[in-house]
């Protein structure tokens, strides 16, 4: 029987990553029931781990005796002293750029635009960056295990590819000569920060 883990995210891109992992690792990842009706906690941690723990503890209280997984992840750019970091999803909002209430969600577009603006004039060899993901699994308010994963890359000066989400069209993988938005979901699972974090986490939860 597959291990069932509820995932506390409504991010479609993250859910695709977890669903791809389900087949590879014989785990049943499901969205936490009623998640959209649960008020989100304030993510005020200064690190990815702090936010992942906070969310796992919080959301696990809404699923009695079930494993609940929370993810906090983002982009760290060396030329920006590690920014956007834990503010990756809110990079554009922090810069004062917000979608109107009746607009489609263009958050990824704005975040990428702000990133390119901040890196304007920075030479290619100085545009090194990494994706970092931290996963925390909790049951009834207690964190059981935490894992992390990273992948190194370079930020391009223009987007490439239509797959993925977030900063993927700008995140170039020199070893593959492709951006994260140009690789298949299966390939991404094997090399991505989230895929590596999942692989590191599951052995600790299989008992």
Average pLDDT, rounded to a whole number, is: 91
For the sheet with most strands, the description reads: 7 strands, mixed
SSE order: EHEHEHHEEEEHH
Strand content: 15-25%
- Overall 3D shape: globular
Terminal CA distance reads 12 Å
Strands, total number: 7
Helix count? 6
How would you classify the helix and strand content by structural class? alpha/beta
Instruction: State the helicity in percent bands.
Output: 25-40%
Radius of gyration, in angstroms, nearest whole number: 17 Å
Descriptive account of the structure:
With 207 residues, the protein is an alpha/beta fold. It is 29% helix and 25% strand. The protein has helices at residues 12-25, 48-60, 91-94, 107-118, 185-191, 193-201, and strands spanning 3-7, 27-31, 68-77, 128-139, 142-155, 171-173, 178-179. The chain has a 7-stranded mixed sheet. α1 crosses α5 (185-191), α1 packs across α6 (193-201) and α5 (185-191) packs across α6 (193-201). It is globular.
List keywords for this structure.
alpha/beta; 6 helices; globular
Short summary:
By secondary structure, the chain is of the alpha/beta class. 29% of the residues lie in helices and 25% in strands.
Explain the layout of strands and helices:
Layout (H helix, E strand, L loop, with lengths): L2 E5 L4 H14 L1 E5 L16 H13 L7 E10 L13 H4 L12 H12 L9 E12 L2 E14 L15 E3 L4 E2 L5 H7 L1 H9 L6
Parallel strand pairs: 1-2, 1-3
Antiparallel strand pairs: 3-4, 4-5, 5-6, 6-7
């Amino acid at each position: 029987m597959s291990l069932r883990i509820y995932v506390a995210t409504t991010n479609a891109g993250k859910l695709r990553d977890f669903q791809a992992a389900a087949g590879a690792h014989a785990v049943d990842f499901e969205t936490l029931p009623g998640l959209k009706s649960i008020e989100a906690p304030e993510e005020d941690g200064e690190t990815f781990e702090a936010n992942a723990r906070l969310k796992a503890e919080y959301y696990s209280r809404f699923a009695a005796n079930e494993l609940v997984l929370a993810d906090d992840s983002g982009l760290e750019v060396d030329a920006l002293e590690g920014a956007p970091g834990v503010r990756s999803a809110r990079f554009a909002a922090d810069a004062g750029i917000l979608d109107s209430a009746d607009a489609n969600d263009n958050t990824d577009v704005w975040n990428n635009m702000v990133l390119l603006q901040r890196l304007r004039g920075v030479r290619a060899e100085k545009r090194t960056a990494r994706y970092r993901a931290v996963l925390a699994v909790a049951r009834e308010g207690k964190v059981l295990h935490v894992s992390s994963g990273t992948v190194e890359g370079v930020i391009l000066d223009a987007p490439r590819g239509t797959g993925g989400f977030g900063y993927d069209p700008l995140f170039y993988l020199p070893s593959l000569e492709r951006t994260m938005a140009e690789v298949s979901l299966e390939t991404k699972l094997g090399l991505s920060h989230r895929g590596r974090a999942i692989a590191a986490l599951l052995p600790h939860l299989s008992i």
